[in-house]
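Allow me, if you will, to draw on your knowledge of protein folds for a short while. Thank you for your consideration; the sequence and its tokens are set out here:
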Amino acid sequence: MKSILYLSLALTFILSCKSENTVDHSLGLIQVSVSDALYESEETLGNRAATAQQHEAFLESNIRRNTIEVGNDFLMVAELRPEEPLSGLKDGAKAALDTTALSNNIRYRLLVYNQAGAFVTERDYIRGQEASTEALQLDGGITYTFVVFSMNLTSNLPATLPTNASTRTLANTQITTSTGANAVMYYKTTMTVSGNAINRLDIVLRHRKPQITVRINSIQTGYNISAITAVFTPHNNGTLINLSDGSYIQNGTSQPVTANFNSSIPSQNVVSSGSYINSPNNDITTFNITSITIGPLTLSNLVPFNNLNLTAGVRYNLILNIVPRDEYTTHNNVPVARINGRLWALHNLGVNTTLNHNPTTITSALHGNYYQFGRNAITAAPTATTTNSNFNNILAASNAWNGGTETIAIKNTANDPCPEHFRVPTRTDMQQLLDGVVVTRRGSFTTSNTNFGSAAILTSKRNSNVVLVLPTQGFINVNGANPPVSLPLEDRGNTSNYWTSSATAEKNPYRLLISNTTEVVGIPTGTTNFAQSRPIRCTVQMQTTLPPQS
């Protein structure tokens, strides 16, 4: 009886030990797929804004603007703008990442490391032809680190270093290239492989280099751009990439990278292919137009920007508008002023355009109608103090006036009250106007429903004879939200308070505000601002510099 008991205990102990030490070393198949490549958003690389208003303020703070002279007759108005994704999040802020599809036939390399960081194996794949690569099978029950690298090319990838695979580790693996003008895309993850099963590795590559697309518009000159050469510096012809984290340093020798415009010349709207800047985060990038021919004029060594601040992995639009100098002119028989590259109506919407727009004494004749955001109905006459029956307590959509974006404004003709060939300006338009003028005040700037004699005077920085006059019409406020109720007029005689077509996804509209102490394009406080009524100063609807991106 005792022997049977001892035998039973021994068998139980052996089976228990065997169960505790069983490890699944059967092979698991790694099935690889890659579809997208992501550019970073500058905001996600810093602190993410808590609200849509803070998000928009962050974007505006990262836009660089400059204006330089081009010969004796023209100006080049320049803007560097980070590319921002268009899709929204639940909180109204924009999506964190700028996504593009990875093209077929692009080559990428997968490297595998064990938990100790030792190199296991690698495979080279071709996007859309992954099945043609030797199957990758790894031991089940083991956690591996997977690293993926690509240069966004259809040609063979450079060799992995060290070339001796037995000495290769995650910490010392590198790629060196002699083509610094190409992309660097990277992905890294860990996964525990399941034996006797298909293990999917869904790869999303992230760009590591900043990329700039240059867009030059000469439409206002009336001439084609027939030739251009331009470069970015500093830049090296080689790159050394650390595959442990995707970081890289410049390698090789110093060599500018050329912006290639060949496919779009001659034209009044030329666009370069995207240039990858072979430099990590930096604030020293310079763009130099070494030569450009616009109609009969050939110019050299134009530098719209130097010391540009670029963030690794972010793509940018460098927008250059070549325009005549600031002046008075007409557009579609409407008197306008060209300031900082944009044409502005000389009068508020609803004013007789034959009147002198800049008299010594401002009168009610220069005051325009009032409108609610996103609507074309007049809600108050120029001298009124309350709204009329056109007041609408249903808030308009955020894109009711602008069916495009800040960069590519598209007039919504069903709602925009501006005349043909004109539109309500975006906040970017208004900011560019402020950047190009000196603001002074005329009149008392005191609040009174009968004070029609005050105005903000916007004088061109480049031609002091060119002036816009913005009467201090104030605005008509609202109260409540369910529904909002119109209140009497506020701040006549004290604030120039003008609509833009821009608004956040939270339905916070932007307006230009000029008071005794303030000159700002911003969002007023409150939750029903769309229902407020303000005057409008129209701008000319010029052809865009930005064709849709591929």
Confidence is low (pLDDT under 50) at residues 1-22, 86-96, 544-550. The CA atoms of residues 347 and 353 lie 6 Å apart. Helices lie at 2-20, 52-61, 427-435.
